[in-house]
């Protein structure tokens, strides 16, 4: 025969002077405390207390699992909607929400979100290229690596309110560079020199000291000597704007090209006698110190003697003698050959007929060219 006893009217159960207390009024259980109901009301059904370190141990078999489940029912997944689980056989810990594993810490300490395995900090074995997961590798070759896999942009960083650095990079605690924004523009900033690297080799580099743009082949900042190109035959750069010059074929001052111009100039003639009006125009090309000018002169009225043609676009170099000489032909009337002699350190040239008689008349027409150098 069995007997039952109603405990409703009994006092609270107190085992071993507070080792375990059942608070029958508030339906709470305390271990190490006689007042479990005094703790937070949403988590005081079971209270383990102590005057120093306290804890709960769940001991499982070496090939088994230990778990804490959070249920909102007894049927199916309702019995473990939330779940903390430790697998002793493979030594990993799992965290579930809505009855689905969301986070795993594997035996190497890798933190995995959305995946269950890590391979060198990156893994697609559980779903292919469309698998979405994030993780942090603690052990192995990829130790200290964070990784993200997602079909869309895997990382989105949003700086709010003002412009500035969005990502900061450090080496041994010292900032070495950053990526940020200025308005709608993105910048890459380096504490020192900045390089682009491909295939293990350093490519284009921007050097803080001197502000130069160079090609480099090694971290030691060695410069290749004529071994790299800027652009290619099938991948050309567009316009190049320089405030200085270009060294072509060498590095000496003689190899520097610092100017190139194409333009027009207005020739004018100086008479030693007579009067004249006419038409005059000219063009020039300047490459470095070398100037090539062409001109056309036509007398429309008057007569006399011409001595000089002036208004050269650039003064000639001071060579101590004639800077240059040219041959001009009068085409409309006589067919005579004329000569020009550019004065040193001047912007005009002497104009002479082959026989040193410089007389002219209406409709005399000259066309010619001369090449000279500037300082």
Q: How would you describe this structure in keywords?
A:
375 residues; mainly beta; seven-stranded antiparallel β-sheet; 45% strand; rod-shaped
Give an overview of the whole structure.
The protein is mainly beta and 375 residues long. It has 4 domains: 13-48, no CATH class; 65-149, no CATH class; 173-230, no CATH class; 262-373, Adenovirus Type 5 Fiber Protein (Receptor Binding Domain), CATH 2.60.90. The chain has strands spanning 13-15, 20-23, 28-31, 46-48, 65-70, 82-87, 92-97, 100-105, 111-113, 133-137, 145-149, 164-171, 174-182, 185-190, 194-198, 201-206, 213-215, 246-247, 256-257, 260-265, 268-287, 290-310, 324-330, 337-342, 349-353, 359-360, 365-373. It has a 7-stranded antiparallel β-sheet with strand order 5-6-7-8-9-10-11, with no helix packed on it. Strands 22-25-24-23-27 form a 5-stranded antiparallel beta barrel. A 4-stranded mixed β-sheet has the order 1-2-3-4, with no helix packed on it. The protein is rod-shaped and about 140 Å long.
Brief description of this entry?
This protein has 375 residues and is mainly β. The protein has no helices and 27 strands.
- The average pLDDT is 80
How many distinct folded domains? 4
Write the element-wise H/E pattern from the N-terminal end onward: EEEEEEEEEEEEEEEEEEEEEEEEEEE
Which topology of the largest domain does CATH recognise? Adenovirus Type 5 Fiber Protein (Receptor Binding Domain)
Proportion of residues in β-strands: 35-45%
CATH architecture of the largest domain: Sandwich
**What's the assembly state of these chains?**
single chain
Largest sheet: 7 strands, antiparallel
Uncertain regions: pLDDT < 50 for 5+ in a row? 120-129, 215-222
Distance between the termini: 129 Å
Instruction: Please report the number of helical segments.
Output: 0
> Which class of the largest domain in CATH terms?
Mainly Beta
Principal-axes geometry comes out as rod-shaped
According to DSSP, the number of beta strands is: 27
Helix content: under 10%
Rg, please? Answer: 46 Å
Q: Which strand order do you get reading across the main beta sheet? A: 5-6-7-8-9-10-11
């Amino acid at each position: 025969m069995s007997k039952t006893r109603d405990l409703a009217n009994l006092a609270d159960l107190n085992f071993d002077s507070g080792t375990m207390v059942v608070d029958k009024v508030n339906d709470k259980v305390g271990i190490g405390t006689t007042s479990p109901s005094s703790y937070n009301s949403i988590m005081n059904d079971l209270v383990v207390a102590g005057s120093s370190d306290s804890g709960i141990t769940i001991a499982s078999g070496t090939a088994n699992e230990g778990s804490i489940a959070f249920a909102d029912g007894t049927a199916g997944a309702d019995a473990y909607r939330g779940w903390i689980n430790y697998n002793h056989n493979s030594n990993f810990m799992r965290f579930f929400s809505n009855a689905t594993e969301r986070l795993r810490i594997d035996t190497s300490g890798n933190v995995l979100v959305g995946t269950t395995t890590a391979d060198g900090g990156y893994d697609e074995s559980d779903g292919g290229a469309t698998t979405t997961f994030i993780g942090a590798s603690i052990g192995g070759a990829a130790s200290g690596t964070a990784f993200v896999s997602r079909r869309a942009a895997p990382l989105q960083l949003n700086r709010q309110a003002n412009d500035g650095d969005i990502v900061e990079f450090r080496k041994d605690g010292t900032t070495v560079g950053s990526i940020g924004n200025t308005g709608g523009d993105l910048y890459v900033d380096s504490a020192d020199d900045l390089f682009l690297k491909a295939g293990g080799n350093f490519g284009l580099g921007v050097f803080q000291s001197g502000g130069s743009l160079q090609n480099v082949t090694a971290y030691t900042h060695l410069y290749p000597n004529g071994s790299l190109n800027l652009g290619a035959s099938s991948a050309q750069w567009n316009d190049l704007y320089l405030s200085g010059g270009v060294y072509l074929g060498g590095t000496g001052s003689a190899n520097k090209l610092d100017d190139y111009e194409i333009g027009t100039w207005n020739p004018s003639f100086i008479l030693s006698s007579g009067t004249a009006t006419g038409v005059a125009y000219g063009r020039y090309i300047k490459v470095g110190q070398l100037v090539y000018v062409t001109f056309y002169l036509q007398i429309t009225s008057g007569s006399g003697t011409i001595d000089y043609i002036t208004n050269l676009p650039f003064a000639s170099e001071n060579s101590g003698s004639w800077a240059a000489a040219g041959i001009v032909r009068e085409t409309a009337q006589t067919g005579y050959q004329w000569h020009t002699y550019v004065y040193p350190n001047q912007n005009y040239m002497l104009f002479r007929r082959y026989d040193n008689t410089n007389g002219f008349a209406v409709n005399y027409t000259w066309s010619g060219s001369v090449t000279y150098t500037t300082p």
